[in-house]
Amino acid sequence: MALAVASVLALLGYVWVGLLRARAPEGDVVVRRPLRSVPPMALAWTAQFAALFIDISGYGLATPGARFGFAPALSMTAWLVLTVYLIESRFLPLHSVRRVLAWLAAAAVLLAWGFPGESRPTAASPWAPLHWVLGLASYGLFGVAVLHAALMNRAESRLRHKQATPGAMSGHMPLLQLERLTFNFIAAGVGVLSLAILLGWWFTPQWKWDHKNLLAVLGWLVLTGLLVGRRIYGWRGRRATRWLYAGAALLLLSYAGSRFVLEVVLQRGTGA
Fold it and tell me: At what angle do helices 70-88 and 98-114 cross, to 10 degrees?
C-alpha cells in the first residue's frame, strides 16, 4: 500500500508537470519555469524517492533484505537525472527539457510500480551494496551526459539552420558550455563505473563473463575510448555523441536489459 501511494503521488505530479506549457515573450534569453510547475515537481520528485526507498529496502516483506530489479534501476536512474536537472535549472536555461523529463520519470515510476523487483535476503558480499550504489550512480551520470548530448545536438542543428548564435541562443544553454558539461559527466561516470567493475571483480569468488559483465566492460571500453579520442584527437559533435549513445546503450543492456530478460521474458528468480 505504501509503495502504491508513493507511486500514485509521483505519477500525478509528473503528469501535471508534463501537461504544463511554458510561455514566454519572443527574444527572452532565459525562459524561467512557471511557478505553477514547482509544487507538483517537488511533490513528484519526493514521492518517487519514497517509492524507491520502499521498494529497494524491501519494506513490508516477510523476509528482511533488499529488493531490486531492472525497473527500480531505471526509476533510480530517472530520479538521479531529474535531480541533476533540478539543480542545474536553478542556474542554467534548461527549461526546454522539463516536460520531456517529467514524462520519462512518470513512465519509470509506472514501470517500477508494475515490476517492483525481486527479494534478495542476503548479498553475495558485504561490499555488494556499495557495488550496486556505484553502478546506479554511473547510470545516473551517463543518463545526465546523454541528456546534455541531446541538447548539444539540437543546439548544433539550430546553428546549422542559422536559428541562433553560439553564445546567445534564446532560452538555451550556449553550445560550448553544453559540450564541457557533457564530457565532465562522461568522465565522472567512467570513474564511478571503473570503481563498480573493479569492486565487483574483487569480491566475486569466480568471475563469470556472462551477458551482464561482458556488456558492462564493453560499455566501459567504448566510453573510455571516447574520452581518449577527445583528449588525443579532439573528438566533438556528432562523432562524440554517437560514441556516448553506444556506450550508454551497452550499459543499459548490461544490467537493466539482462534483468528484464530474466524477470519478464524468462520469468526466472534471483537464484537463476
Answer: 160
Q: Which residue has the cell 524468462?
A: 266
The secondary structure of 105-133 as a DSSP string is HHHHHHHHHH---EEESS-SSTTHHHHHH
118 φ, ψ to 5°? Answer: -110, 150
Distance CA 270, CA 121 (A): 10
The torsion of the CA quartet 262, 266, 267, 268, rounded to 10 degrees, works out to -60
The tens digit of pLDDT for each residue in 120-152 reads 666 556 667 788 889 889 999 999 999 999 988
Q: What digits encode the pLDDT tens for the residues 19-74?
A: 886 554 444 444 444 556 788 899 999 999 999 998 887 676 666 667 788 889 89
- Cα separation, 21 vs 119, in Å, equals 40
Q: What is the pTM of this model?
A: 0.82
Q: Dihedral, CA atoms, 96, 164, 187, 51, nearest 10 degrees?
A: 0
